[in-house]
Amino acid sequence: MVIGGTGLVGNALLRAWKSRGAEVAAATYHCHASGGFLQLDIQDAARTRALLREHRPAIVAVPAANPYVDYCQTHPEETRRVNVAGTLNVARACSEIGARMIFYSSDYVFDGAKGSYIEEDAPCPINEYGRQKADAEAGVLAADPRNLVVRTSGAYGWQWEPKNFVLQIRARLSKGEEMRVAEEVRYHPTYVENLAEVTVALAEAGARGIFHVVGSEEIARCDFAARVAAVFGLDGRLIKPVPAAELGSPTPRPKQSSLCTDRVRAAIGLPLLDVPRGLAAMRAMEGSWCEYAKALPDPAAKVAPGRGI
Ligand SMILES: NC(=O)c1ccc[n+]([C@@H]2O[C@H](COP(=O)([O-])OP(=O)(O)OC[C@H]3O[C@@H](n4cnc5c(N)ncnc54)[C@H](OP(=O)(O)O)[C@@H]3O)[C@@H](O)[C@H]2O)c1
Fold first, then answer.
1. What is the pTM of this model?
2. Residues enclosing ligand 1, CB less than 6 A?
């Protein structure tokens, strides 16, 4: 079962498992009139338990979250109810039916002072999103030591609701609009299809504990934006590198939170893609994604739970 099946990571996971012939159920927070998604608010412990008891999945992947870093900073209690309490509702329900859980966390559990963080480094978050992720990780691993925590960073790829950085750049630049991008923030952009394939391989290998799964190349955010423009044939001069402080975010962010990936490389045989290979793979997938997306429910027609459909 994938909880968060409409999201960037969740939808890629759903497709990766289905392509192997696995039977996969997918849940989303919003209600959809089509697409076969189950509806679940992970804040509702009883409904979470009932859904897992009904479907009895062997593995429950949980990319469901409120991943908006600034929103978490300004609404800590509201987002904690999803990102920590909700995650732990799923962890408890998984323990009760003997399912293994895969939880998605972030490089933001670190402060960015050191870089090349290994899985054993103690979390030291500097913002609320990072604190929520660190607390949820600890709870997930305490619930069952067989559970898997995948820490990732800067995921990009085709997405049902075009929210990720690459799709934002494409949308802005194709309209001839400038885009201001932080010049000093460095990270490892991660192609979401690669992240999904690696997750499935880890699950098949019975991996447990924490694994860092990020693209193999560290790059400044503004340089990544320029590469996106080049790959998609857009005008890279519209990318305006600026100091991160000028972007007006209320949230302190780690400047250099790169994650060491030795553990995942030793555990499975799949490569982690660098930026050229990740962007080229995304570009090559455009046609098949457009076909696939036709079968997805219209994002504009989604309805919040309890409002009826
Ligand atoms: N994207 C990145 O760059 C990145 C980097 C590091 C870590 N992560 C982590 O990776 C995970 C996946 O991120 P993403 O980018 O795929 O997120 P996303 O695209 O925003 O998808 C989030 C998913 O969670 C569902 N959801 C939200 N609230 C829920 C609730 N209360 N109950 C059940 N489902 C709920 C959403 O359902 P609806 O569509 O119905 O609202 C959606 O399917 C998150 O934990 C995120 O923190 C992401």
1. 0.97
2. 3-10, 28-30, 40-43, 63-67, 82, 86, 104, 106, 152-155
